[in-house]
Specification:
By secondary structure, the chain is α/β, with parallel strands linked by helices. It contains eleven helices and 16 strands. The strands form four sheets. A six-stranded mixed β-sheet has the order 1-2-6-3-7-14, sandwiched between helices. A four-stranded antiparallel β-sheet has the order 4-5-16-15. A four-stranded antiparallel β-sheet has the order 10-11-9-12. The longest helix is centred in the first third of the chain and has 20 residues. It is elongated, with a radius of gyration of 24 Å. It binds zinc ion.
Length: 379
């Protein structure tokens, strides 16, 4: 595997060029046309690296790019799913204000760290394997989505279907500081609590009304108390609205909640408590809408075993692989909740995800490509 390193070091300049090119095609999640411009480039490049590539429309987002390598050591094995996204949180025009800059050690630019560097890492890992005569152990499916930054509303089903057909999943989100993998992530739920009452004139016949604002307000302290400090479960009533005018008894009110939990048990506890809320006024009604669109990613025994294997492989490469947990969610939450062993945080080292100072360490393009190539070869 020493030849991997030498090959990848010779690619340093090309990696920087490719990353610059990917960043200079701006890809905010909700711009289908811009997304497709990058999807087209990825399709062409991955096909050039020997993959069978398909593009799946995902309106209103850009196309999902799926690339499959089947000339592998054991084509009959279950595939490995390598999961990425090409959309970024940056609106069009960010690049003009903050163009790509490169020095000896870092490349900075919008989307570099989350996660356009990962596009480079995946293609370089697969190229490195073929150039050094090493093959992936099992078929490789690379899936590059376009709506991750807005919670994967449209790609979720496709991701889940692909994960269920796979032996394990490697997610190339940015790592923790220093390169540690993300082995557990909080689940995120979005819920809306709606109260329905009855409108009436606040001056003429207030007794005929049922005030939905008052009804909703009665439940909010208990809802906020569903959080658990010890288990770090949070329930945040974050947005509230209701009523039609000051002098009308409010017929309607609603509150949007952000719920986060480390474990599926905690997520279930909060969700069932919300669904069990019953109105206090006999003529009011309460309606709960929402779900954990990102279920908690727990470090399951199967994922822990995969992590141990990856750590050992990294050690053979002279790399130290640590891991930790984070409050934010990713597509790894989806695949892990299905029970498919998942490793996340395999992207380039750097800092400033979703921030002005976003940049990556150029050396890590080499080390992470090497790690991914070795994981594809061995796992
Ligand atoms: Zn990301």
């Amino acid at each position: 595997m020493q030849s991997l390193r030498a090959h990848l070091e010779s690619r340093r300049g090309r990696m920087v060029d490719a990353l610059r090119r990917y960043i200079e095609l701006e890809t905010p999640s909700r711009d289908r046309e811009l997304g497709n411009a990058l999807a087209g480039l990825l399709e062409e490049r991955l096909a050039g690296y020997g993959a069978a590539v398909t593009r799946t429309p995902l309106p209103p987002f850009g196309d999902v790019v799926t690339a499959r390598w089947t000339e592998v050591a054991d084509p009959a094995e279950k595939p490995v799913l390598v999961l990425l996204h090409y959309d970024t949180v940056w609106p069009v025009g960010t690049l003009a204000a903050r163009p790509v800059t490169v020095d000896d050690t870092h490349l900075a630019g919008p989307g570099a760290y989350d996660m356009k560097a990962s596009l480079v890492i995946v293609e370089e890992a697969l190229l490195a394997l073929s150039r050094t005569g090493l093959t992936p152990k099992r078929p490789v499916t690379v899936m590059i989505t376009s709506d991750e930054e807005v919670g994967s509303p449209e790609s979720r089903r496709a991701i889940e279907a692909e994960a269920l057909a796979s032996n394990h999943v490697l997610v190339l989100e940015p790592p923790l500081a220093g390169g540690a993998l993300k082995s557990a992530r909080k689940g995120v739920g979005r819920f809306v609590v709606r109260a329905h009452g009855r409108a009436a004139h606040a001056g003429l016949e207030p007794e005929k009304g049922v005030n939905a604002i008052v009804e909703l307000a009665r439940h909010l302290p208990a809802i906020a108390d569903l959080g658990d400090k010890t288990l770090e479960t949070t329930v945040n009533p974050g947005l509230i609205s209701g009523g039609t005018s000051r002098n009308t008894v409010a017929a309607f009110a609603e509150c949007e909640l952000d719920v986060r939990a480390w474990t599926i048990a905690e997520a279930d506890r909060v969700e069932s408590a919300l669904r069990a809320i019953s109105p206090q006024h006999p003529e009011a009604s309460i309606e709960i809408e929402g779900s954990f669109h990102r279920p908690p990613m727990e470090l399951t025994p199967a994922s822990a075993a995969l992590l141990d294997q990856a750590t050992a492989i990294a050690e053979e490469l002279g790399q130290t692989l640590k891991h930790g947990r984070v409050g934010g969610a990713s597509d790894a939450n989806l695949t892990s909740a299905l029970g498919v062993p998942t490793l996340d945080g395999l992207g380039a080292l750097g800092e400033g995800a979703h921030a002005q100072n976003e940049k990556i360490e150029i050396d890590s393009l080499i080390s992470r490509s090497e790690l991914l190539a070795a994981l594809l070869h061995r796992l």
